[in-house]
Specification:
This protein starts with a helix and ends in a 5-residue tail after the last strand. With 710 residues, the chain is mainly beta. A hairpin with a 6-residue loop joins β5 and β6.
Length: 710
């Protein structure tokens, strides 16, 4: 009788806990408020809780990433109460996992499913540790081997802008002569994160018609360390010192291709191959728990000299010399104020001077820009964030052309550019995320005021899948070569429309993205605008549309990482000297990249290969009536690399070997034609090809850790 009475005084509460996708939540905690009596949900999200004292109680339900829930329950003696399905609402942490993916490849925040890290860039075969080279294996990019720069979704190279810690970089590539590829100035190891937007990027950034490459540098150096790098093309030496709240890093680099070119036969008649001296200084000072001051300075001097084929007189090549002096410095501050506001500000200065000698002609170009920037952002409750800011650019461009036989000419302009933006991130429920922004820009030189609207959204279909969409208006000042001759121009303009689907789970990422890009107000001219600047105007237009597909897998094959990228591009433009709308010479319809990396434990070595394909690009044959109606052969490249980890003098050491185009595919990027036909009406032509069929690199990198215990 006593046993029956005790049972009658107890009660049971049961139920099933699910998330916003109606998926069961395993391991959620259910506790009776004010007691230690509780339980957790099983694999199906179900739970049963015994109550020794029936009556009115409050259940506390909690699960990481979701808002805690208080649930009042009233039970009677002996009652088994079924609460049915209980749905949890995402908390701020879970909501942050809904992010915009349309047009964006994040490579920094793990919550955004990192696609490329700095180490990925360095170990991608064929990229030779160049940021642009590695990004060219992602969908949306074009293989333009004679340039070595980023061409994105039918856009020219100047339409992609580079930002370091939010500050615009005027000249991110080394200077070079036509049809010889450039290389990025900055090492990928400088950066903790790389955000590569192939379109529809945030209102925070401007002056880029096609793409924004946002590079964020490291905070404090992790430790005191000296590194030495010896390669077949140069020497690197760096030292970083770490104190409690500050760090300083100094780097020097010497590059000289003369020894390499003496061994590897070149297609170029070099007099003095490319050589450079570069230096870098990086200082970090921690200002508070969340605040930091960064100072970053880069300088370089480079020179090359060659005999450049004169297509109209092949027996008398042009003697070409290029000298470049470059300097870039920026200083930024990040701080959290009153636990609510995040403030980012900075100043930067860009300086680039090129002196080109071509026989009797001397061309000098100096481009300088000073930048001020200030941003602020704040979270206003769960799922709502505002960001706004302003920036100011003061650019000075000077160019002089002196020819002993023909003419002297000087061109210059000064432009002061002011911009402001405001942007809001809103989480509308558990699955929907919106980003709305406006950007206002004005330049006094052109007296052209623009207002650009940007809008993006993401909708989470399941815990691992989401769709995103983006729309944006983008403006960019004409290139300096045009603004130096006319101030009657306007900003060039592009509209982006993007739709994206992405699935990510267990180190597997799949995404497919369609886009349409409409160009307007492009620069157009007839004849030689340098002598007739009145022909320069903004009457050009065009479009680009296509589909990009990306698949990355770091799970299916043990110790392996691979990705496959494919892009389809359909584009035409009526701009520059084009008599009618045509496909620009840098655009190929089909682009494919397959990247594979495999780590071998037994020998501490990573092997990698990259296969790249691009369908033939258009070029113009002056003997035919249509423009750009011919096609180059398809592009193929198979590159291999090897990274072996070992020790020298007890220090961490990497031996690196790399070779591009190991199968020796012939690559033709286009043709140069003579200006006049011969007596039989035939134009003399030569193909535009790489400087050599292959590029091989051997490097040894030793890292001396001064904190290591002896």
């Amino acid at each position: 009788m006593a046993v029956w009475t005790a049972a009658a005084q107890t009660a049971q509460v049961s139920g099933v806990i699910r998330d916003e996708f109606n998926e069961p939540v395993t391991g959620a905690n259910i506790i009776i408020k004010g007691t230690y009596n509780g339980t957790t949900t099983d694999l199906d999200g179900g739970f049963t809780l015994e109550m020794s004292k029936p009556g009115k109680v409050t259940l506390l339900i909690s699960y990481l990433g979701y808002k805690p829930m208080d649930l009042e329950v009233d039970t009677g003696p002996g009652e088994n109460k079924d609460l049915g399905t209980i749905k949890l609402k995402p908390g701020a942490e879970q909501l942050a996992m809904v992010t915009i993916t349309a047009g964006a490849f994040e490579a920094s925040d793990e919550k955004r499913q990192t696609l490329l890290k700095p180490l990925d860039i360095v170990t991608t075969a064929g990229a030779t540790a160049d940021i642009a080279g590695a990004l060219n294996t992602l969908p949306g990019t074009q293989t333009v081997g004679e340039e070595g720069k980023l061409f994105v979704r039918g856009g020219a190279a100047y339409e992609t802008q580079t930002f370091i810690d939010g500050m615009l970089v005027q000249k991110p590539y080394n200077s070079n002569v036509p049809n010889l590829p450039s290389r990025g100035r900055f090492s990928p190891f400088l950066f903790s994160g790389t955000a590569f937007s192939t379109g529809g990027y945030s209102a925070e950034y401007g002056q880029a018609l096609s793409s924004a490459l946002v590079l964020n540098t490291h905070d404090l150096a992790p430790k005191t360390q000296t590194s030495l790098g010896l390669t077949t093309v140069g020497l690197d030496l760096s030292h970083q010192e770490r104190w409690e709240n500050s760090s300083l890093a100094v780097t020097g680099n010497l590059t000289d291709l003369s020894p390499y070119n003496a061994v590897i036969r070149q297609n170029i008649d070099w007099i003095r191959p490319f050589n450079s001296q570069t230096g870098q200084l990086i200082f970090r000072q921690k200002l508070s728990e969340d605040g930091i001051l960064k100072v970053h300075g880069d300088f370089s001097n480079s020179r090359l000299k060659l005999n450049y084929l004169n297509i109209d007189d092949p027996g008398n090549p042009d003697n070409v010399t290029l000298d470049n002096n470059y300097f870039f410095v920026n200083s930024t501050i990040r701080e959290i104020v009153n636990d609510n506001w995040t403030i980012n500000g900075g100043i930067a200065y860009n300086y680039n001077h090129d002196q080109t000698l071509v026989n009797t002609l001397t061309l000098k170009t100096t481009d300088q820009m000073a930048i001020l920037r200030l941003n602020a952002s704040r979270f206003l409750g769960d799922g709502f964030k505002i960001k706004f800011g302003t920036e100011y650019h003061d650019q000075s461009f000077r160019q002089s052309i002196v020819d002993e036989q023909v003419l002297n000419r000087r061109n210059q302009y000064n432009v002061r550019y002011l911009a402001g933006f405001a942007e809001a991130d809103l989480n509308l429920g558990a699955r929907l995320f919106l980003r709305l922004g406006e950007r206002l820009e004005n330049s006094d030189y052109l007296n052209d005021l623009t207002l650009a609207t940007r809008a993006s959204m993401a909708y989470k279909l399941s815990p691992h899948a989401q769709v995103s969409a983006a729309f944006g208006q983008f403006y960019q000042l004409p290139e300096s070569e045009f603004m130096a001759y006319s101030n009657r121009l306007s900003n060039e303009k592009a509209l982006h429309y993007i739709l994206n689907y992405q699935y990510t789970q267990d180190n597997i990422t799949f995404r497919i993205e369609g886009y349409y890009k409409q160009y307007d107000q492009l620069i157009k001219y007839t004849g030689d605008y340098r002598y007739h600047p009145e022909t320069l105007d903004n009457s050009g237009n065009g479009f680009a549309r296509g589909v990009d597909i990306f698949y990355r897998d770091r799970k299916s094959i043990r110790n392996a990482d691979f990705w496959v990228s494919y892009s389809f591009l359909d584009t035409k433009r009526d701009y520059r000297y084009f008599p009618e709308a045509a496909i620009p010479v840098f655009a190929s319809k089909h682009n494919l990249s397959v990247v594979y990396k495999h780590w071998i434990d037994k020998i501490d070595t990573q092997l990698g290969f990259t296969y790249s394909f691009a369908s033939g690009r258009p070029y113009d044959d002056p003997a035919t009536p249509a423009i750009n109606d011919q096609r180059t052969p398809d592009y193929h490249d198979l590159s291999l690399n090897l990274s072996h980890i070992t020790q020298l003098w007890g220090n961490y050491t990497v031996l690196y070997l790399s070779c591009s185009n190991i199968l020796g595919f012939r690559k033709i990027f286009g043709y140069r034609y003579s200006s006049q036909p011969d007596a039989e009406g035939i134009y003399y032509r030569v193909p535009i090809e790489p400087t050599a069929p292959r590029f091989a690199l051997i490097g040894l990198f030793v890292y001396f850790d001064h904190n290591k215990k002896q």
